[in-house]
């Protein structure tokens, strides 16, 4: 197992170091705002920044046309690339989420029946190991639905499929996210792109194969095979493959997605252990009849996962994973499954943004200020996500792998309960959570108490280190 990166120098404030906004005053204001907001990321801006001059200065900062989301995110993305460079290969997990807002706002778009707001498409770098540690955000694209979609235009104006494809399409965000991530990382590491079934698009997969990008994408459509004379489809073909092995996995609890209808990924799911039967094989897709562009055929590998003996009141897990990764051995096939299961990290990251940082409760009026506000909280949410993951490490992982010696020393002094001589990472994180107000009777630590406790620890450690320096003079 790759040794975990210590949390120490990777606080939210550190993720903005070196920001270049073209004005020293703006850069100072940025650092001050992050210092104020990080300890209580869910607090409103008036509470977090304080009333009066500081609050007004914060609003002016977010409204300033010279301040952009890209500029705010650049230091964090650069730091993410540095972390990625320590690994031979890294997962780039892609997904989109909606940000919904109440009240009157400027230049936001519609989100179906569920209100108005905008969407964000994220690329999150994740370690390719059992811990699936999040290394940071590599790319972010935001947009509001202020114009009809290509599908709506095709129906309203009776456009052909070829004509509709000339209209900017939200589906193109997947490829833009891949290329943005690849451009940022370059040769520092090899990226393996992971996407859910929403990315099952023939045009996208064709472009990724042509560019020699590595990917694992969950199949949504039962695609016709190029080798089939009788119209045989993917599910029929893979069902005839023998089971290579079985694998027991932990399925996380899943709540209902807003606006998701009855789609499988939108239906709530209880936490449980599942036994999966695994099969795999090569396949060649045929270009859809109504799709006039792209290669006529597309060679891929497919890994099929089917749950055995699912509970009668639960939908059985079934994944068909399309990949460019080799599947010649059981180990390679299981790696593909583990890569897809790491996709859940980005769902947790969205929770960190929405629950831990309360993005959708921000009282900012325009798309520009909301984008800037989101960019401001992207690194803070990443810090919360890493703290949450660290609090759930196995008991066998020592605290020295996530905390610096000075931090452990100070934590011993601050902890309400004495720490053991060699505390585990879990014991250390529970002590940090208690600094943030966590009560053991409340179960596992949540986003907020971990963030508050860690910021309190960092502030005390900073004073401790200054005192040590004075003693050495």
Primary descriptors:
about 475 residues; globular; 10-stranded mixed β-sheet; 15 helices; alpha+beta
3D structure, described in words:
The protein folds into three domains: 1-196 and 343-390, no CATH class; 214-331, Transposase Inhibitor Protein From Tn5, Chain A, domain 1; 395-472, Transferase Inhibitor Protein From Tn5, Chain A, domain2, CATH 1.10.740. It starts with 23 loop residues before the first helix and ends with a helix. Helix 14 crosses helix 15 (447-472). Strand 3 (116-127) and strand 4 form a beta hairpin. It has helices at residues 24-37, 45-49, 53-63, 69-84, 150-157, 161-164, 173-185, 202-210, 234-239, 330-341, 344-356, 367-390, 405-414, 425-435, 447-472, and strands at 89-101, 109-110, 116-127, 134-143, 190-195, 214-218, 245-251, 272-286, 297-308, 318-323. Strands 1, 2, 3, 4, 5, 6, 7, 8, 9 and 10 form a ten-stranded mixed β-sheet that branches. The protein has 15 helices and ten strands. Mean pLDDT is 85; it is low at 1-5. By secondary structure, it is α+β, with helices and mostly antiparallel strands.
